[in-house]
Amino acid sequence: MWYKRSIPESDLKVRLRKKRWQSGPFQVYFWFLWSFFNGYRFFIQRPYRARVIQSWRFGRHYHQFSTYTLPNRYPDLFALAQAHFAQYATPKLLSFGCSTGEEISTLARYIPHATLVGVDINQWCLRQAKRKFGSNSTVFYHSLSDDFRHSGEFDAIFCMAVFQHPENRHNPNRTESAAPFLRFEEQLLALDQKLKPGGLLFIDHCDFDFRESCLMTRYRLAPFDRIPVVRQRPLFNKYNQKIADRQLVFRVYEKIEN
C-alpha cells in the first residue's frame, strides 16, 4: 500500500509548503521549518527516504518526485483504452512511472486480456508493485534496466502525472521550469522507440505541452478523444518559460503509421 499520511502531518506539510514561498520577515523561518520537517520525514518514512535517495542516485533521469498514486485515478481514460483494445487479442501496455503499481492493477481490471509492463526509477516502489501485483501477465522493471530496454514495443504507453516538477506547481513565483523541456523531450523520444505505429500515447498532468515537442509530426490526436480538459496547474513552453496558470490539454495521441 502506498504511504498514507496522517491528517495533522498532511496539513502541516501543506501549510509549510505554501508559507516558504511567501515573501516577508518570516520566510527564512518557514524555510528552516520546511527543511527540518523533510529531515524528519527522511529518517522516519521509508517511502520518502527512498524517493530522496533515488533522486540523488539517478539525477537527470528522475522526473516525478512524488510516489503518490491511487487505483482507478483516470477512469475516463481507462474506459477509452478498454473500448479501443476490446478487439485486440493481447494488447501490450506500458505504465511509465508506475509507482507502487495501482495504475497497472487498474488497467488489468479494465483490460484483463492485456500484457502489462510497469516501469519506474524508484526501486522501493518497484518492490511494492511486484509484491502486490506481479503475475504471469504483469511484470515490473526498472526504467533504466536491460529488461525494459529489451521488452519490445507496446500498443499503448501511459505517462500519467510523470512529467512534472513539484516546484513548478507549488511555487507561485516561479517563471521558469525547474525541469528543462529538453529532458521531457528526450524521454519522449526514448518512449517513442517503444511505441508501435498506430499505438496510443496517454499523457496527463504534465508541465509541458506534448504538441510543442519534435515528436508531434509523428502523431495526431486520437480520433476518439479530441475534447480537451482543463487542468489547474501551470504550463511551461519549450523555452522553459511559464505561459499560463492553467492548462487546456489533449491527453491521447496516436502514432502515425508509416
From TrEMBL:
Pfam family, one: Methyltransf_25
Residue ranges crossing the lipid bilayer per the database entry: 26-44
InterPro entries: Methyltransf_25, SAM-dependent_MTases_sf
Methyltransferase domain residues: 94-169
Keyword DNA damage: no
GO molecular function: methyltransferase activity
Protein name per the record: Class I SAM-dependent methyltransferase
One GO term of the biological process aspect: methylation
Record's keyword terms, sorted: Membrane, Methyltransferase, S-adenosyl-L-methionine, Transferase, Transmembrane, Transmembrane helix
Keyword Membrane: yes
